[in-house]
Design brief:
The chain is α/β, with parallel strands linked by helices. It is built from 16 helices and 22 strands.
């Protein structure tokens, strides 16, 4: 499997479809919906973790990498899922959480009992001579990154939740365990692997304080040794499959590093997830704020990454949405007045760029954030932790809830909306998170009366049938325009011009003159539009022209 002409769909299993009516999605639920997935014509599905886990961080705190959490089903269910997906041409991508394990994992439990072999699996350190924590690093989930290691007087490192203990990749035994896990799932027919926060595995042997006033992330992110670890993992596991597809989630990374991670000759990863473009509605870089998105910043970031990765022969994973992000339509579109058109515009922007597009479940029918009215409606650990912090900063309860409504990770985790019933056809029992607007947005209605799903099918077909979409180069157009993101894809003598109006107002643009045989390959409005030097775009209009 090459990855340039593929489209990958992400399923958050807990929220896709509940087959046994316990309020949680499960593997048999996914099997039941394979005809729908086939209809969309995707090539691979990335599944968020369904390993055994205490679920303190929704499955990203794994206590057993080799077994299916009974909440989701059995290994027989998994084998059936892989086989039935394969029979309709869809491969499986598993989520590998290799920076940390749950503190309930047997390795950590053996370490707690003093087993030196397993103590060496983790970063366990003494306090400083003044009894303070081993370093001044902050956890990404708030508070210090160190927690007491039992009653030993020592501390263990956790860059995330205290129940997620960081693994020490300097230990060859840890690296062998990771390859063994990948190979186990490869032998189960898994062709794809997504590596969670993989660029923070390269901490130094001696952990030092972050210099005063600097971000502690600089002390452990994108260290050179990560490349060495990925090359070793590649060689000992997925690199043995010529059609493997791998993607690394890269926290606070750079274009130069991501070229290195994805350069074919380096034998590391197929592609990378980066998040710079999803921080353009953060005030001063702080997620827990509300502001209108900065369009020019968004445009410049997308352009910089496209140009940089193209020049360096790296490869992007393209996405707006995932299980950790609020719905893009709420952030960069208009789910109230222009739900269909803004959803289609966002899809066009991403799918016609250079890279491999990911669709997050529900995106293809225009699902939006739930707009919960009470903190108790939320489940996410990060959301629960930030609420008192926001209040402590002097915000009112209403202001704090407004920010949570905009930024909570639960925004994208609500159940897939299959029909307009009380629980959206997801379950007959009350789900773990409640759906909200299924009376307007649901699969049943979309397939009969809607336009977004059909539009996604068209975009996917373009990637599979036009090599200029899958492997063409990228060049910017109209970078000074404050309303339109326009770009040019090129392949040999062909050109593809893509125009995306990011706002709910009509706008007129002036383009250079293009000559050749011109055809419109996609347009999210039914009215005909011609490629001329002056073009007027309707609200949230996207159109692409092919010039031969």
């Amino acid at each position: 499997m090459t990855f340039e002409d593929k489209v990958i769909y992400q399923i958050y299993p807990k929220s896709f479809y509940d087959s046994n009516n316990d309020g949680l999605g499960d593997l048999q639920g996914i099997i039941a919906k394979i005809p729908y997935l086939k209809q969309l014509n995707i090539d691979m599905i990335w599944f968020n973790p369904f390993f055994i886990s205490p679920q303190n961080d929704n499955g990203y705190d794994i206590s057993d990498y080799y077994h299916i959490d009974p909440k989701f089903g059995t290994m027989a269910d998994f084998d059936e899922l892989v086989a039935k997906l394969k029979s309709v041409g869809i491969d499986v991508m598993m989520d590998m959480v290799f920076n940390h394990t749950s503190t309930e994992h047997e390795w950590f439990q053996k370490a707690l009992k003093g087993d030196p072999k397993y103590m060496a699996y983790y970063y366990i350190r003494d306090a400083k001579p003044d009894s303070s924590l081993p370093t001044n690093w902050d956890s990404k989930f708030g508070g210090p990154a160190w927690e007491a290691f039992g009653n030993t007087g020592k501390y263990y490192l956790h860059l995330y939740d205290p129940t997620q203990a960081d693994l020490d990749w300097h230990n060859p035994a840890v690296r062998k365990e990771m390859a063994k896990i990948v190979n186990f799932w490869r032998n189960k027919g898994v062709k794809g692997f997504r590596f969670d926060v993989i660029n923070v595995i390269g901490k130094d042997v001696d952990l030092l304080d972050a210099p005063y006033g600097t971000d502690s992330r600089l002390m452990y992110t994108d260290k050179k040794i990560v490349h060495q670890y990925l090359q070793e993992l590649n060689e000992s596991s997925f690199g043995q499959d010529p059609d493997a597809v791998t993607v690394g989630e890269m926290s606070s990374t750079s274009i130069d590093n991501c070229i290195e991670y994805t350069l074919g000759k380096n034998n590391e990863l197929s592609m990378v997830f980066t998040f710079h473009h999803l921080k353009v509605d953060y005030t001063h870089g702080n997620k827990w704020t509300t502001m209108p998105f900065d369009f020019m910043s968004l445009k410049n970031i997308l352009n910089d990454w496209q140009l940089g990765m193209t020049a360096g022969h790296g490869w992007n994973a393209l996405f707006w949405n995932n299980h950790d992000q609020p719905r893009a339509i709420n952030r960069f579109g208009d789910p109230v007045h222009y739900r269909e058109k803004s959803a289609e515009m966002l899809a066009t922007t991403i799918h016609l760029l250079r890279g491999t597009p990911f669709i997050y479940m529900g995106e293809e029918i225009g699902m939006s954030d739930p707009q919960y009215q009470h903190l108790s409606d939320y489940n996410d650990i990060e959301t629960k932790n930030i609420y008192p912090t926001l209040l402590a900063k002097g915000l009112s309860k209403t202001e704090a809830l407004d920010i949570i409504q905009a930024k909570s990770r639960d925004n994208s985790r609500t159940p897939m909306q299959w029909d307009n019933s009380e629980y959206a056809g997801f379950s007959t029992e009350k789900p773990w998170l409640m759906p909200m607007n299924q009376s307007i947005v649901n699969v049943q209605n979309e397939l009969v009366h809607g336009e977004i799903f059909n539009y996604y099918q068209q975009l996917i077909k373009l990637r599979k049938t036009l090599p200029i979409v899958s492997v063409g180069d990228y060049q910017p157009l109209l970078m000074d325009d404050t309303q339109v993101f326009a770009y040019l894809r090129t392949l040999k003598n062909q050109r593809l011009i893509v125009l995306n109006n990011f706002y709910g107002t009509t706008t007129t643009i002036t383009l250079p003159a293009f000559t050749g045989e011109i055809s419109t390959v996609i347009n999210n409005y039914p009215t005909d539009i011609k490629l001329e030097t002056t073009i007027t775009l309707a609200p949230y209009q996207s159109v692409a022209f092919l010039i031969d």
